[in-house]
Amino acid sequence: MRVAYDPSQHVDLTRELAHADVRHRCGRDLELETYSIEERRRLSYLFAEAWMHMIFRHGFFHADPHPSNIMVLEATEQIGLIDFGMVGKLTDEDMSRLTGLFIDAMNERIEALPKRLAALGVRYPREMEEEFVAELRDGLRFDRRWRQLPAQ
After folding, report:
1. 29 and 67 in a common domain
2. pTM summary value
3. What's the structural domain count of the chain?
4. What's the whole-number mean pLDDT along residues 46-64?
5. Do the Cβ atoms of 12 and 20 come closer than 8 Å?
6. Residue 149 — pLDDT band, cuts 50, 70, 90?
7. Which of the residues are catalytic?
8. pLDDT in tens, 77-118
9. CA geometry: angle at 141 spanning 139 and 143, to 5°?
């Protein structure tokens, strides 16, 4: 992913996207029931890959990722992100903390995640930490089952 902004190209890019072969213009218009499990999985990977690329390659991220700001371009199996009016930038320290969070998540060290999130500034009542860890465990169990579903 290369990130560059040239105001003179804005109109051309918008016009190009408007005429592209777009299955549904915006994420909010997706009819997920028309997508197979494999197509949903592919979209999930595309979203995750885009954010990981922004964060770990460029040190910034789109900070307003609601469905109206995400376009699915069916013909190219790509997603398009629009409206970069709100972005976040990570410090080197934040990047290090986030890397630790992802390493713990990938290694399923669920108990470490609340502390990792707190180090990144995520705030929650301490008395809810047990419930939070339980919900993360439930999410992990769901993810394991979901990954094992056969493609439709």
Report:
1. yes
2. 0.61
3. 2
4. 88
5. no
6. low
7. 64
8. 788 888 888 998 989 999 999 999 999 988 989 989 999 999
9. 70
Residue 85's alpha-carbon distances to 50, 62, 81, 82, in angstroms, are 17, 8, 11, 9
Structural domain of 109: 91-152
Cα–Cα distance, 132 to 144 (Å, whole number): 19
Residue appearing with tokens 């909010």: 28
- Check residue 33 and give its pLDDT: 77
Q: Distance between CA atoms of 81 and 66, rounded to whole angstroms?
A: 10
Torsion over CA: 112, 117, 118, 124 (sign): negative
